[in-house]
Design a protein that fits this description.
- There is one protein chain.
- By secondary structure, the protein is of the alpha+beta class.
- It contains 3 helices and 3 strands.
């Protein structure tokens, strides 16, 4: 993962996960492709598993969204 700060104004929500292990695999896929990501609601989703309203959102830079989406497409279909 690059050592740069991500500007929150340019982030796109790529996928939502309500299970920590699914989120970890998705982030690993992106990390291996050198795509930075951040997670919104990561701890809330883990502590309070209240369904989709509080699911963890995997977010990437706008310029990485298309490539990240292609990388995760097969993984997300399988869950």
């Amino acid at each position: 993962m690059k050592d740069t700060k991500m500007d929150s104004t340019s982030l796109i929500a790529l996928a939502r996960f309500d299970r920590a292990e699914q989120l970890a695999v998705a982030r690993s896929i992106l990390d291996n492709a050198n795509i930075d990501s951040v997670v919104r609601n990561e701890y809330t989703a883990t502590i309070l598993p209240l369904g989709d309203d509080f699911a963890a959102e995997l977010m990437v830079r706008e310029e990485d969204a298309a490539r990240a989406s292609r990388l995760l497409r097969d993984f997300i279909k399988g869950i």
